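Weekly modeling sync, notes
Attendees: S.R. (lead), two postdocs, one rotation student

Agenda item 3: backlog of single-chain predictions. S.R. asked that every request posted to the team notebook include the full sequence so nobody has to chase files. The rotation student volunteered to paste the first one in as an example of the format we agreed on. Action items at the bottom.

Example entry:
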Amino acid sequence: MNSSVIGSLILMVVGLLLATGASIVVLINAFRQHVGWFFLVFFVPFGNVIFACVHWAETKVSFLLTFVGLAMMFGGVFTVPGARDQLMKGMKLKMGVVEQKAPDFAAQIQEHRDKLESLQGTFARDGVTLTQQYQQLDAQRKALKPGDTEAVTRFNEVAAAYQAKNTARKQMQQQMDTLQKELDGLLEARSRSAATNGASGKRVVMYTTSHCPACKAAKQYFAQKGVHYEEIDVEASRSGYEAFQKLGGQGVPLIMVGDKRMDGFSAAALDAML
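Predicted structure, as returned to the notebook:
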């Protein structure tokens, strides 16, 4: 136990003894005045304050010493390491005040990106499959013969299945759009939070592709560090590809931090750039 803790304990004990002794003196004075005052001071909250106001001349010293003792007690408590935080936390809980934790932008952003990448991959594969199915359906339709009821029934069944998949793909596109809007909102919120906390104002741009393992590693790094960045998929954006070419990009990821450049991904190098 260090000296600061011992000093705090001594202060609390002395304060407790002083407050207790002074309170007993107030009770004795109240009993001497009248038994009713005694019960008022002993049982009624702030009864000692009422008694002191009415009989100030007789009780002012003991009354003031009570508050001095209480002040010493609380002073001792507040000087104990960590005690102040625990006391304030307990008071907030009693008053119904709940501390709001800062949003975990990194986890939410990474979760949205993972979902979006998964949906984009499925969306692309389904697009290829649906194109092939449409070509097959078109060939079957042209091969149908009038009066061949069985063939027409089979064609209608396959066409219905194709239509169901096509509808599901449209719903997937809507889900992707919603996720992208939510991701943009999270990135904007994180940017505002970083600006509020005095984060660096360097613009971070990363040129990527959806199938690049190093790009995914860089995204995870940015998410863990809480770094806001602009992602440009060079395969999905023509203007992004042109900007990538102007920079002389030969591979992805190409990361720009302000006017500094990184080809590929290195966590240590990015730490230095940021």
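Discussion: group reviewed the output briefly. The chain has a mean pLDDT of 82.
Action items: rotation student to repeat for the remaining queue; S.R. to check formatting next week.
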